[in-house]
Amino acid sequence: MESAIRQRGGDKTRLAGLIRGFAANAAENRRLIREMLDRDRDRFYAATVETLKTPNDSKGYRYLISLPMGRAMLLEALADPALSHDQAVAAARSASQLYSMMDVSLAKTVAGDGFSQKVAPGRAKRMMDILRELSGGRAPSVRCEACCAIPTRIFAPRPS
After folding, report:
1. Dihedral angle at the C-alpha atoms of 81, 155, 95, 44, nearest 10 degrees?
2. Listed residue (114, 121, 68, 132) closest to 95, CA to CA
3. Residue 53 gets which letter from DSSP?
4. How many CB atoms are closer than 10 A to CB 113?
5. Distance from C-alpha of 156 to C-alpha of 27, rounded to nearest angstrom
6. DSSP string of 54-95, one letter each residue
7. Is the model's pLDDT at 30 over the cut of 50?
8. Of 36, 65, 107, 117, which residue is most buried, by most CB within 10 angstroms?
């Protein structure tokens, strides 16, 4: 168990180093980051969440945000309680600079299309809060966690 904890700390340190040195050797660091993801998604996710805690505008940070997006990992990380609200909003803003449809991805996740399992009400509320921040306050606010517990599919048209 101690070895696993040490490895996770090592992954966080390694990922942070690859992000910092990304501009100097983008092709190699891109390969190594993908290798980390392919080797162990859970450990990579934990390292990514730690990295998202200190947002910056480096090429490595932007690459990290762009990489997990295709696998819904970034959306999952935004709802992770390990990130503060401000850290999650900063990461979402960085992602929205790369993906013009970031707000749509967040909305789909809240509606149940982004994860393989249902989004917990607390996480759905957090995503709605992030969505509201991204939209400059134009998105509806969620004032009650019970609102997030209502199945969103109830309003979908019934198959004929």
Report:
1. 50
2. 68
3. T
4. 13
5. 44
6. S----HHHHHHHHHHHTTTHHHHHHT-TTS-HHHHHHHHHHH
7. yes
8. 65
pTM: 0.72
Contacting residues for 3 by C-beta, under 8 A, at least 6 apart: none
Q: With contact defined as beta carbons under 8 Å apart, do 126 and 79 qualify?
A: yes
Q: Which two tokens stand for residue 102?
A: 């970031």
Interatomic CA distance for residues 88 and 75, integer angstroms = 10
Compute the distance between CA of residue 122 and CA of residue 149 in angstroms, rounded to an integer.
9
Spatial separation of the C-alpha atoms in residues 23 and 63, rounded to whole Å: 11
- What tens digit of pLDDT does each residue of 114-123 get? 454 556 777 7
Is there a contact between 75 and 106 (Cβ–Cβ < 8 Å)?
yes
Amino acid type, 61: Y
Give 108: exposed, middle or buried? Use CB within 10 Å, 0-12, 13-18, 19+. Answer: middle
Q: State the Cα–Cα distance between residues 14 and 55, nearest whole angstrom.
A: 17
Q: Is the dihedral of CA 1, 18, 100, 93 positive or negative?
A: positive
Whether the per-residue pLDDT at 150 is higher than 80: the answer is: no
Give residue limits of the domains in the chain: 2-152
